[in-house]
Write a structure and sequence with these properties.
Elements (H helix, E strand, L loop, with lengths): L1 E10 L2 E7 L4 E5 L6 H11 L10 H4 L7 E9 L2 E9 L6 E4 L2 E3 L2 H5 L4 E4 L5 H4 L2 H15 L3 H21 L6 H44 L4 E4 L4 H4 L1 H15 L12 E4 L2 E2 H4 L2 H23 L4 E4 L8 H9 L6 E5 L11 E6 L2 E4 L9
Parallel strand pairs: 3-13, 3-14, 8-12, 12-13
Antiparallel strand pairs: 1-2, 1-4, 4-5, 5-6, 6-7, 9-10, 10-11, 14-15
The structure holds adenosine-5'-triphosphate.
Length: 366
């Protein structure tokens, strides 16, 4: 799977751009604020139909334009692939894959997958448990798009269950009890399915993350653990145990929406004990390991998009990263000098929303 060429029209700061990508490594270089991340965001859109920065569609459309277009041409398993996206403010976007309309984001995932590392990924290690849950669940969906339905189902159940808990005003009337029993049964089915999938994923992910971290940083051990207490006796029993507490507080207190993925470095919690550079390396190892699992499951590597990845890695780790990139296509942006290993790939220079091969003619004045 790879993209050979990408076209952007009215996407962020780009009025119009055509970019040829190397099937291996492409480095996108340029000063701050020139459009490097915007280009990566457009490529990422083709691989997931959303902004990896979590930006709303209105932010993606160039100021003054009505809609943005991103088009990518490449191949998947030896067959030509054409992905065409029209992005309109307010989420009214349309996607064609090989000229066929795609209705849901997860259908788009069937064709092109991208794994992204961005500076915000530091939060995977430094942030609260929700960041790590989202990481796990996004990876689950990338590995098996059908799990998106389980996740959506769970969100819906939790919303309605929480609304009931709030409305009850802390009183367990027979009607509240009967309705809560129904929601608990549904929450148990969806919640245990998601937790089982997370636990199985972590079994595979743990060794992959440890290896990715060792490749980047040398000897230190990174460990992952997903073992919510409620899984010992089952979710239904745990919900019964906290029912009075939940009614009093008006919130759903137990379940996959409250779980933690523990990430340790040398057996210490990385959130509180690792340095910023170590945390960034762990976050990168989480993404690289995810890319490897997706590659193994698809039998073809996903696109790897690394935004501003060298900014907090020391020269040894930057070099190690480039030496251990998973097979497949990688696009990396940097405002800093490129480590020498990047040179065997292609280097593109971005200035004022224009992209040119490094060493080629400078962009024409805008
Ligand atoms: N919707 C939009 N319309 C026009 N310009 C936009 C839009 N959204 C963002 N920009 C412009 O894009 C530029 C930022 O581009 P980008 O984030 O790609 O920079 P970068 O090259 O990655 O910089 P850095 O090295 O600082 O991360 C900003 O100058 C911003 O004003």
């Amino acid at each position: 799977m790879h993209l050979a060429r990408v076209w952007l029209t009215d996407f962020r700061g780009y009025a119009s751009a055509e970019v040829a990508l190397d099937p291996g490594l492409t480095a996108v270089v340029g000063a701050n604020g020139q459009g490097k991340s915007n280009l990566l965001e457009a490529i990422g859109w083709l691989g997931g139909l959303r902004s990896f920065r979590g930006a709303p569609t209105e932010a993606l459309v160039r100021v003054g334009a009505e809609r943005a277009f991103v088009r990518g041409e490449g191949e998947r398993e030896g067959r030509a692939l054409l992905v065409e996206c029209e992005i309109a403010p307010g989420g009214r976007s349309r996607t064609l894959v090989n000229r066929q309309p795609v209705r849901r984001a997860r259908d788009g995932l069937e064709f092109l997958r991208a794994v992204v590392f961005s500076p915000d990924d530091l939060e995977l290690v430094k942030g609260g448990p929700g960041e790590r849950r989202r990481y796990l669940d996004d990876l689950l969906v990338a590995l098996d798009p059908r799990l998106d339905a389980t996740r959506a189902d769970l969100d819906r159940i939790l919303r309605q269950r929480s609304a009931l808990l709030k409305q009850s005003g802390g009183r367990l009337t027979p009607e509240v009890e009967a309705t809560l029993d129904v929601w608990d049964a549904r929450l148990t089915v969806a919640g245990e399915a998601l937790a089982d999938a997370r636990a199985a994923l972590v079994d595979d992910l743990g060794p992959a993350v440890a290896t990715a971290y060792r490749d980047l940083a040398g000897g230190d051990e990174v460990g992952l653990r997903y073992a919510p207490r409620w899984r010992e006796g089952g979710l239904l029993a745990a919900l019964h145990e906290v029912r009075r507490d939940e009614l009093r507080r008006g919130v759903s207190l137990v379940g996959p929406h409250r779980d933690e993925l523990d990430v340790t470095l040398q057996a210490l919690p990385s959130r509180t004990h690792a340095s910023q550079g170590e945390q960034r390396s762990i976050a990168l190892a989480l993404r690289l390991a995810g890319a490897r699992l997706v590659a193994a499951s698809l039998e073809t590597p996903p696109l790897l998009l690394l935004d501003d990845v060298f900014s907090e890695l020391d020269p040894d780790r930057s070099e190690a990263l480039l030496g251990h990139l998973p097979p497949g296509q990688t696009v990396v942006t940097t405002a800093a000098a490129l480590p020498p290993q990047a040179v065997p790939g292609q280097v593109l220079r971005v200035a004022e929303g224009r992209v040119t091969p490094a060493g080629g003619a400078p962009p024409p004045p805008s």
